[in-house]
Amino acid sequence: MTKFRHWVIWPLIGHSDFVISHFQSERIEIRIRSKIKIRIDTMHLEDHLGDILRKGRAAKGIAADAAAQAAGLTEPAYNALEETGRCAGEIHFPALGATLGLDGVKLERIAKGWLPATPDLSLWRELRQITTQANGMEVHCYLAWDEGSREAALFDTGWDAAPIFKLIGENGLSLRHLFLTHLHEDHVAGMEAIREKFPKLHLHSNSRHAPPQHRNRANDFLHLGSLRITNRDTPGHAEEGVTYIIGTWPEDAPHAAIVGDAIFAGSIGRGNQSWELARQKVREQIFSLPDETLLCPGHGPMTTVAEEKANNPFF
């Protein structure tokens, strides 16, 4: 897995070249002469089965040979499973899950190709996911705005600000706030360009190095027109990790939670600070949200609280 370095953003520094891609593709159905239907699943999880096992093993401090024995595999076969996410042999999921502190039933579901249901994003008409890519890595940031006032808030920046600027221009928006879920490079690389274009932008962060006026406080809330934005501490992947909840959407749409790398569909972010703290905070701060809450992660597909309670092997 990639190890991130924190970017020092007080003051800001620049970033390297990048490649841009927009909006994650999901499922496509093709009908050929009305007789054959082929479904192509282009949605993919951030972590395949092997990535999840490797994270579980790291969290528990389990050696590969012990995990292989629990799985009923040779050590080379198990190592190949972690590397590729695939295995030709039979895996003993209950024993493997118990050894790694993961749910064996949910692991098997991941192995069989589980994906979260595609959310109906028409419920959140003023929310957009923006995906950029660099160094072979995709990352998502999110733009939300009030339908009446056209005031907007950006959540993380991704690798590049260009598609953000395009979306702001196309929708006639006024960008007022930038909320940072954490300070890993892929989440803040576009910030210098954004602050140059919007010098009066107000920043929000959980970083202890941020100036007081930019630091989130417990029980803070902010109104963006009719929308209400609150924050919940979700450290573990990063010390300054925070989740932002956007509520009071038009037509009573469910909350949307911008979770950064605290949780992915079917997995969690690496426990750079603490694996146990990362899981604890997801349970306390994210799984306590209503089941229908839309989870908007930094990587991989969108999901919901209900989907992750039912299918995430870490819980």
Structure overview:
The protein has 315 residues and is an alpha+beta fold. It has two domains: 49-111, Orthogonal Bundle (434 Repressor (Amino-terminal Domain)), CATH 1.10.260.40; 116-311, 4-Layer Sandwich (Metallo-beta-lactamase, Chain A). 27% of the residues lie in helices and 23% in strands. The protein is built from ten helices and 14 strands. It has helices spanning 49-60, 64-71, 75-84, 93-100, 104-111, 162-170, 185-188, 191-197, 275-286, 305-311; strands at 19-20, 27-32, 36-41, 127-134, 137-145, 151-155, 174-179, 202-204, 221-224, 227-233, 242-247, 256-260, 294-297, 303-304. It has a six-stranded mixed sheet, covered by helices on one side. A six-stranded mixed sheet has the order 9-10-11-12-13-14. It has a two-stranded antiparallel sheet with strand order 2-3. Helix 2 (64-71) packs across helix 3 (75-84), helix 2 packs antiparallel against helix 4 and helix 4 packs across helix 5. The longest helix is centred in the first third of the chain and has 12 residues, at 49-60.
**Helix-strand string:** EEEHHHHHEEEHEHHEEEEEHEEH
Please tell me the overall pLDDT.
Answer: 89
CATH architectural arrangement of the largest domain: 4-Layer Sandwich
Beta strands, count = 14
Number of helices: 10
Shape: elongated
- The first-level CATH class of the largest domain is given as Alpha Beta
Biggest sheet statistics: 6 strands, mixed
Strand content: 15-25%
Percentage of residues in helical conformation:
25-40%
Query: Order of strands across the widest beta sheet?
Result: 1-4-5-6-7-8
Q: Which spans have pLDDT < 50 for at least 5 consecutive residues? A: 1-41
Coarse structural class = alpha+beta
Radius of gyration: 20 Å
N→C terminal distance: 21 Å
